[in-house]
Amino acid sequence: METVTELRAKFIAGTYTPTEAVEHSLQVIKAQDGEIHAFLDVYEDAKEEAKLATAEYAKNGQETPALLGIPFALKNNILVKGRKATGSSKILENYTAVYDATIVKRLKAAGAIFIGATNMDEFAMGGSTENSAFGPTKNPVDTLRVPGGSSGGSAAAVAMGAVPAAIGTDTGGSIRQPASYCGLVGFKPTYGAVSRYGLMAMGSSLDQAGPLTNSVADVELIHNVMAGQDDMDATTISDTTYPKVEIKETYTFGVPKHFLADGVDEDVLKAFDEHIEALKAAGHKVVGIELPLFEQGLAAYYIVMPAEVSSNLARYDGIRYGHSAKGDVLLDIYEKSRAEGFGAEVKRRILLGTHVLSSGYYDAYYGKAELVRKKMRAELAKVFAEVDIILTPTAPTPAFKLGEKSDPLAMYRQDIFTVPVNLTGVPALTFPMGTVKRDEKQLPVGVQYIAPHGGDARLFAIGKKVYDERA
User: Quick one: the chain helix, strand, coil %, rounded to 5?
Assistant: First the structure.
């Protein structure tokens, strides 16, 4: 499918219409989603919105809103008023959202048409979309493999050509890792750049929403629609929160070579080295850097994140909303509702989080993890005084086979390059850097660009030059 930018140009020229685009999306879903399972719900009434958008283009052309008539898919932990919002969990199987998330309001105001809600790991907990209560999603590149997670449904929706763009959420790499596995562009913004109001909270100090697309230009356009301060989310930031990050013609890239030495597939490293050589050939400077605390990021993340999960998911108690089991006393209702409603990975993280927050363990685990987090930010600030962008592979391997990572610790290691970004709050962009061969198939692998706080525009500028102009 064309990019958002290409579709809009066709709409304005009158050579293609939103009605045709939406009908195409629905046809692709009907033909392919039985096998892929990217979608939990498909919105047939999108056809009516498309008719209105088509008429608006005929009347006002280029003066129409930035995303008018563009089909979008939306991860099912983002609230859309009147639509089911399950978070891919049995505990919210029949929950209907009663208000729009802030980003949904902004996308609607820009004219976006939502085609459907995408599958995900339950409450965004996982890296493969195998933890959905409603069944796994398959990777359109190779249906024997996972699309990544937790935004795997959103990634698969774009990769199979159903929509030109989808929205995911990223707590520890849940946009960037599936983008890498599916050959897409994915973006995790500076923490606070995008409102979390109306997103199901997993890790409140980590979560950010962002787009998955086929071009960096599309990511920039969509992000700029969604971003900005929100009175409903006190963590959102203004344009003046961080010093202005300079946009340049050439950049100094920092590569933490020691961080890449362990656990990265040899052919992924080869593709990464080739990307470095291409940057040098284009006039950029690439230097080695040290990020010793980044190596501790995975351990710190799997203390901080479950602690926040334990707190955030306490609201699902069988009383206020969601699945409610019968019990003789109140405690029975709590226990049975949560036991029946939550899947294994969610229970695992709640138990771990409750433990690290408990009396006698808080200082030993959670307190130390937050200290590491603080020192990681200081380490990054020091490195960014010397380099403009930090460069890593997005994931240590290409997409793995369904069922291959049955050991949770093996699954967690897939996030080794992405979780430090969320812990420190900086922005990161991923896009394809090549392919590697597995079982006679070429599988995409991604490269990750990390910028300082507020450096989102820098990532868009260099990404458009390095990826869009050569794609």
Answer: 45, 15, 40
